[in-house]
Amino acid sequence: MIKVEDLVIELKGFTLKVEEFEAKRNEYVIIMGASGTGKSVFVEGIAGFLKPKRGRIVIDGKDVTYLPPEKRGIAIVPQDHGLWPHMSVYENIAFPLRIRKVNENEIRRNVKELAERLNIEHLLNRSPSKLSGGERQRVALARALIIRPQVLLLDEPTSSLDPKTRKAALELLKMIKGSVTVVHVTHNPYEALVLGDKIAVMNRGRLGRPKDPREVLLNELSYYVDEIREATSLIGL
Amino acid sequence: MKALVALGTTLVLFILVPLIVTFISVNPKTFEGIYSNDYLRSQLLGAIVTTFEASAIAILILLITGVPIAYVLSRKDFPLKNFVESVLDLPMVIPHSVAGIMILLAYASGPLGGVLRQISLNIVDSIYGTIAVMVFVGAPFLVNTVRRGFDSIPRSAELVARSLGASKYQTFLKISLPMVKRNILTGTILAWARGISEVGALLIVAYNPMTLSVLVYDWYTTLGLNYALSVTLIMLILSIVVFIALRRLEGGEL
């Protein structure tokens, strides 16, 4: 569970304000908004990379507002997946456990189990540079899930994928839905509606409260629907 | 396109011709002369040892101090950052003899020179002076090359490591540093090459113990071209061997 209260982050020429944001245990909450509205600032803020001017971030009952990123229990999957090119896929996934000084046998067992679950077992010895976009995403997800995070933070995880791979990626995210608290940042309304238990809309640095997807679609994302209608009528659908 | 190739080839030949001419101009009898003369032989061997010893220590100092400052410059914004960048670039544009005078004034005379002498680090005509000069002239090459490497690391690579449990230092050592391995090797080659080729500043700060570059100059002025040529050849071969070895380590092509 993650709860954000009265959070203000000030950067040069930009202020992020979050009055109240909550993702309950194992809930899948979407942060939706156009580019440049402050989604990434929110991600980096709750992950601990930007210092807030005020406010509180609570994860599973613990105030983490001023804790460093490594002590928050948040795992990030960034837009470009952030795989480390000097390590194999296995080493990428094992790294968070090695940092925690888990013994090698247990690391091997955990990596194997997760790799089987995400269907990447055959990729373990490969270099990240030899992976396709979809494979890279699976590996990034496995690396994040290996620590059993309290919150999984997905920052535009499918935006660098082609449409076919994106569909498979959505299936993968559906698969993990319900097993971990997810905060998923996207500008794609389809992704938001397919995955989100709740959707919070980010607009000019202000994050609204997470709401029921249908309510958000009707009241706050109607312009997307209008655009889609207009586009489909243009091509005669 | 042909004109471009012709112009480019001219430059390549301009560099290649002296290299070939140097190799074919060496008279093997000069080597015999040096080998049979105890004084000349020990001077040459001493210069080889000094060159490698001083340049190895200088590179070590540059790695220990240069890699951290390259990382800080790449990652942090702070007051006077532009000033620090300019200071680190300065040795590239300062004439060599001027650099020698500066090092001499700063670390040989005055209060700092006194302190250094008290701890047995007299830089005048000692290997410490040679090392100081090599660190001074090599710094911009190492720092700038390594910094370019840090600049090219996607921010996400470090953010992910931190979020998954790595501290700042673990992230630096296990993620960032291995990702700039090639830049560190390239920077090392460039700084090393710059260091061993230095003459101007060494003539002022530490003429002795002579490095190979200083010995080329010394023998050219005292014994003539043939003797200078034999040291030149040795230096060329050693430089090429080290260059090839480091490039191999780097995993790049020649």
Automatic annotation (TrEMBL), chain A:
The keyword Transport applies. It comes from the Archaea. PROSITE patterns: ABC_TRANSPORTER_1, ABC_TRANSPORTER_2. Its EC number is 7.3.2.6. SUPFAM superfamilies: P-loop containing nucleoside triphosphate hydrolases (SSF52540). It catalyses: tungstate(in) + ATP + H2O = tungstate(out) + ADP + phosphate + H(+). GO terms for molecular function: ABC-type tungstate transporter activity; ATP binding; ATP hydrolysis activity. It holds the Pfam family ABC_tran. Keywords: ATP-binding, Nucleotide-binding, Transport. Residues 2-229 form the ABC transporter domain. The complex is composed of two ATP-binding proteins (WtpC), two transmembrane proteins (WtpB) and a solute-binding protein (WtpA). Belongs to the ABC transporter superfamily. Sulfate/tungstate importer (TC 3.A.1.6) family. This is Molybdate/tungstate import ATP-binding protein WtpC. It comes from Ignicoccus pacificus DSM 13166.
UniProtKB/TrEMBL annotation, chain B:
It comes from Ignicoccus pacificus DSM 13166. It is a multi-pass membrane protein. It is found in: Cell membrane. GO terms for cellular component: plasma membrane. Residues 48-246 form the ABC transmembrane type-1 domain. The keyword Transmembrane helix applies. Keywords: Cell membrane, Membrane, Molybdenum, Transmembrane, Transmembrane helix, Transport. Belongs to the binding-protein-dependent transport system permease family. This is Tungstate/molybdate transporter permease. The lineage of its organism: Archaea, Thermoproteota, Thermoprotei, Desulfurococcales, Desulfurococcaceae. GO terms for biological process: transmembrane transport. Pfam families: BPD_transp_1. The chain crosses the membrane at residues 44-74, 86-107, 127-146, 184-207, 227-246.
